[in-house]
Design goal:
Length: 208
């Protein structure tokens, strides 16, 4: 059986130097080990070793599975008691918050009225007459100028006016039930101002 021609390689230039260095290191290590000082063991060393071996032999090693079987109840009771303790804390905090005494002397309700509006019978009749005349004018203009009344901006203003009228009726009903409440009075004044602005804008567009 013939083998193929194997390639030839030149050794690394410092190969022999590294081999000599390794041999020198081994020789130095052997000399250092021989120069180490000698110590005599203590007199009771072997007796202590025998005692420790006897203790290890007499000790019973319990398998983890056996240990788990021995204390399953205790391990299950621990999270149960932890949960019961947390629930008890929550209940105690809730009872404390519920029965905590409140200082009623420091509690008060305040409100302030910024403006005063007098709603006399004469002014109410004047506003009603003006609204009626404005509605009559708008209805007449839409009947005579259908194209102008159907324009998007005019239609939107008429829708806003109807919504404001419905809201005004609701406020009137609430004032009849609750009386001249300051909040209702302010809301009604603001609503009437909005109705006046929308009515003026609508009449201006119908006349243009």
């Amino acid at each position: 059986m013939s083998y193929p021609q194997l390639p030839e390689y030149e050794p690394h230039p410092d190969l022999w130097h590294r081999i000599e260095a390794d041999l020198d290191t081994d020789e130095r290590l052997a000399r250092a080990v021989g120069d180490l000082p000698l110590f005599a063991p203590q007199a009771d060393l072997w007796e202590r070793i025998d005692a420790e071996l006897n203790n290890e032999a007499g000790r019973v090693v319990v398998h983890p599975a056996t240990e788990a079987k021995r204390w399953p109840l205790f391990r299950n009771v621990q999270p149960l008691w932890a949960g019961m303790a947390a629930a008890a804390c929550v209940v105690l905090v809730g009872i404390w918050l519920f029965w905590r005494p409140t200082n009623s002397a420091n509690e008060r309700i305040e409100y302030a009225v910024e403006t005063s509006t007098n709603w006399s019978g004469a002014s109410a009749e004047t506003a009603t007459d003006a609204d009626r005349r404005a509605e009559e004018f708008i209805t007449q203009q839409c009947a005579e100028q259908a194209l102008v009344c159907n324009r998007p901006e005019v239609h939107e203003l008429r829708v806003q006016l109807d919504e404001l009228k419905t809201e005004a009726q609701r406020l009137d009903n609430e004032r009849q039930i609750f009386g001249d409440d300051p909040a209702l009075v302010r809301a009604q004044v603001k609503l009437e101002n909005q109705r006046a602005e929308v009515t003026k804008e609508l009449i201006t567009r119908l006349r243009s």
